[in-house]
Design goal:
The structure is a single chain. The protein is 30% helix and 22% strand. It is an alpha/beta fold. The strands form 4 sheets. Strands 1, 2, 3, 4, 5, 21, 22 and 23 form an 8-stranded mixed β-sheet that branches. Strands 6-12-13-14-15-16-18-20 form an 8-stranded parallel β-sheet. Strands 7-8-9-10-11 form a 5-stranded mixed β-sheet, sandwiched between helices. β14, α10 and β15 form a beta-alpha-beta unit. α11 runs parallel beside α12 and α13 packs across α15. The longest helix is centred in the middle third of the chain and has 16 residues. 53% of the residues are buried.
Length: 505
Amino acid sequence: MTGQNQAARDRAEQGQRVDFIRAVRLTGPSGVPFGDDPVDLLIEQGRIGDIAPTGALRPQGIVLDGEGCRAIPGLWDHHVHTVQWALNADRVQLGAARTATEAAALMADAAPLADGRLIGAGMRDALWPDEPTLRALDDATGERPAYLINADVHSVWLNSAAFRREGFASTADGMLREEDAFEISRRLNTADDVTADAAVRRAGQRAAARGVTGIVDFDMAWNAAAWQRRTASGFDAHRVEFAFYAADLQRAMAEGLRSGEQLPGTDGLVHVGSLKLITDGSLGTRTAACSHAYGDDPANFGVFTIEPDELRAFLTTATGAGIDVAVHAIGDRAVASALDAFTYTQAQGTIEHAQLVRHADLARFARLGAVASVQPEHAVDDRDLVGSLWQHQQAISHPVASLLNAGVPVRFGSDAPVAPLDPWLTIAAAVHRTGDERASWHPEERVPIETALRASSHRGGTDLELGGVADLVLCGTDPLTADREQLIRMPVAATLLGGRVTHLG
């Protein structure tokens, strides 16, 4: 950055706490009516102490020159599998593979990790013209254990060496699905603490460079101790709300964890999140619980991984302990089951994904106050799958505007590593509903940029206002006038967390 106050600019470095931000324009959710005029922000103890037209306040302390950048509230990703996302950078990327043969060849040419395993991620086998087989992967990879993780993480393609290593009986197609696939992912993600924490630090820096000031962590592990360890060793890239799963519910209750409370020993950066419950599968694995059969299999309606009675019991227990819930529900039967459980228990929390919602369920979704935590990029990635696998479904596919119009609170996330952790990709997908040159897919589900920005701020509603936490992003392009390509490539000049610079472009 360049500016009039060179000495002050030189002091505004990454990692420092800023006392004064000069000459920014407020964009997006804002509680202060300054229009398009540049303003100065006084930062006091991590909060916005004053806002005034540029030049009206005396610069003090460490000054960051905004150079007319657009200031917006810090961006959140409300659905991240943190360690898996962090480790994904070192795995073979399979998203471009157009056939099973091509994916197997990519693994054959890959260098193994230090422990000898070949790990690939991001395959989309539901789009392939040929089907995965155990023999094909064996022929390509030989005796090196090979694991190809589906983009939706609900299935994994293994070779015989990997089946033997993990102690699973091999299958003809080499595929493991749902809980067996999750178990494989848990094992692959169980790196030593030093390796995992270093990967999380690097990933946190990448996120800050895109304006991220907070994430909701849905790692399939007990993360309280992990986040205490990471913050103690210097992690400070963004805020975290961490979830835990059913296997750890009793442990969370025994330790007295309650949703929204600060996790001790994390300097206020980490808070207790929700109980995560996965009630059905996914579209790509053809296991999301739906009212109508999948297009390629008239006998397949998907599966419940948690039956409705068991789900109600979990929500009852969690609610009594002061713990919110985050219910994974993709198919319309699963969404209906989740809404039934919220009705029965009066639980607080989110329905994650909600990719297929019955028209009749929109109104009760809103009445219950349940939050829809959705991933707009999935609509871009899944549009071809929906056309073939969900062609018989009558419910609304990948709704966003329909939820908002019904009065449902909506939050945005990526589901990283299923989609990239980049809030600008998420925002562009919500606003434009396309990821290429094709026309918008179901354009009636597009939302205005202002709505997308709000859904991407903390819990869907952070404003820039006096007294507000100084979690800020300085954007080099005005999001309100940016086209799709400009949103995707949004230049982030600076990211601040409580007034501290976590990224400086």
